[in-house]
Amino acid sequence: MKRAKWAAGISAAILFYLFPAATFAQDSLFIIPKPLIQQARLGHFTFTAQTQVFSSNEFIGAADLLHEHPYIHFKKIISLTAIKQMPKQGIILVRANQKDTLAQNAYRLLVEPKRIIITAHQPAAILNAIATLRQIAYTRKNGDQIPAVWIEDRPAFGYRGLMLDVSRNFFPIPFLKKYIDIMSLYKLNTFHWHLTDGAGWRLEIKKYPELTQKAAWRTNANWKYWWNSGRKYAEMGTPEASGGFYTADQARDLVSYAAKRGITVIPEIEMPAHSEEVLAAYPNLSCYGVPYKNSEFCIGNEETFTFLQNVLDEVMSIFPSKYIHIGGDEADKSAWKTCSKCQKIIKDFNLKDENGLQSYAIKRIETYLTSKGRKLIGWDEILEGGLAPEATVMSWRGEKGGIEAANSGHDVIMTPGAYLYFDAYQTNPIGQPEAIGGYLPLQKVYAYHPIATQIDADKQKHILGVQANMWTEYMPTSNQVEYMAFPRVLALAEMAWTAEKNKSWNDFQLRLQKHYLLLQRLNVNYYPPSTALSVLSTFDIDKKTATVTITSEQFEPSIHYTVDGSAPTATSPLYHAPISLSATAIVKTAIFKGDIQIGKTAELQVDIHKAIGKKVIYNNSWSTNYPAQKEITLVNGQTGDLTYGDGQWQGFLGDFDVTIDMDTIQLLSQLKIRFMQSTGPGVYIPAQVTVAVSEDGKVFKTVPKSDNDVPYTDPTLRFKTFVFDLKGNIARFIKITGKNEKNGFMFTDEVVVY
Q1: Is there a catalytic annotation at residue 332?
Q2: How confident is the model over 644-652, as a mean pLDDT?
Q3: What's the pTM?
Q4: Catalytic-residue membership of 661
Q5: Where are the strands (E) in 516-621, listed by range?
Q6: 197 is an active site residue
């Protein structure tokens, strides 16, 4: 009865602040993710050595995290069990009463000049409020004093995840704790720990010691060198052995550390593929029975399931998470096709094919996990052959798998590579440390919305949330992980927490400026905003005008430009809106602070040329995976950006072979065509390009060919424009071919004809 009266008093006291007479102008708070409601109050609260902490019994465990606040110092948490009225001073954590309109997963943070009151229904929400308090301290120059404020906040999605791959490169526990610390500051609540893969097994399994005596070690620390040099493993203790593993006790300690900060750790144990390291140590589990032959478990071998269940038993004894991630991606099923044991399973269980065999394996593992009170989660390939009944899907190959699973009634975590794979470059790759490829700038991360329009309204509840992934092939050190993760993780955090209607890129950019201080204080090696400018153009075929847009990673920069090819100066026109052009021009632009240029001049030639809008005949069609704008791509007046996934780069397998119909016979002077090279994902410039012209489309005259001079051994992002002199040629048809010498992808964006 005492508790009920006291709680009612709290509610009444707080309601006074819900309807303020005015909002007062004072120094602002720059919180990420953006709170649902944030209203300023009069005055400030100052943390002192005498500040006391009070808590309802349910929240005492959560309140202990206040010890990690840089300005809060207290010896013990005072229980509020028997108190009759609210303390007049201090920090107070209190459970919301049943009549409080506060959502179950929400918190209310009320800062007054003499006290701070945090109200919530659940410990997890209290931890989110404490994260807000800690973040405020780190983003203010004088964090021992904070302005009075009323905040009410709750997450848009229940699952807010960040993955780290420790197989390709092993990272020590102190770094993992730092990683989790920063996750908690930004209210991410799930750490997906990618513990096993072909590059190394990283978790102690007592029943199978060879996993950490051999499968955890390889012959070279450099993943790329190891990958291209035989991919051999080494015995622990040999001089060349490179790798490492976490003991069961270390893993338990990390799980406990994360839980204290409101973060669940989900382990990933890869199966049935990405298991080369296991099969090197236990070759009897492969179809061939020998190491280094394939990377998939033998599904027809009952020993495989004995092994996997034993491993999962030990994993579940360490990790209390509801989910156990089993991978399930990128299985090469060729070994299963020739394995008599696997084929027998297909026959005995009336499976359609090897996709059905994979589904059979996944369903067996799901049944086992379900019997232990757990749930299976895997990458979207687990859809192949039929999805296990209770499985949850992580959709990484775009959104298609997630949409299909959600509409079928399965839970989904959205993690599409184009938006949430943080191993992609975040700026122009030139001058950046080597990465896997692709281009994922901060703004693109922020713009992602996990609920696709193709998901039925009554099935949208199955989108549990989002996750970004840190694949570490090209991240050999913790410094490089931080460089690739931050500040993109902050955009992820807001996208996962803040309702779509409340998001604003400009507002996020403003708040982000204060968070560089936080990252500096925590010694995070973040990627700083570049002074380079991005210059892109779009073309309106009907109006025959190009629109040039200039963007910068800098906050509110002064950008000056020219369109006559001259170098920009501080007196050149100031860019404030897209530039409209009706004729070919060279746009040059740079950032200035006063009279001083900051960074290099950026340049884009905008070609308004004869071939725009003409018919393109594809003698060899584009790849269905990279159609770009289909038939109009090569003649739409638009060039591509820094990634072949931007919708303007058209991809080809085999030789490039197109013919452009110029409508009429006409005098030609020049042709240009640009190709991209990014060797990591297998994208190459053609060995040579040939151009031939014809008046009738039957008899062609070939002009001198042009050979590629960009070496295929160059791992950096490269572009090459092939230029052909067509002066004196009269033609209607132009045939362009490119020799695909490497049998990889070739990408081109525009054929320019004058």
Answers
A1: no
A2: 94
A3: 0.91
A4: no
A5: 533-540, 545-552, 558-562, 579-581, 585-593, 596-606, 615-618
A6: yes
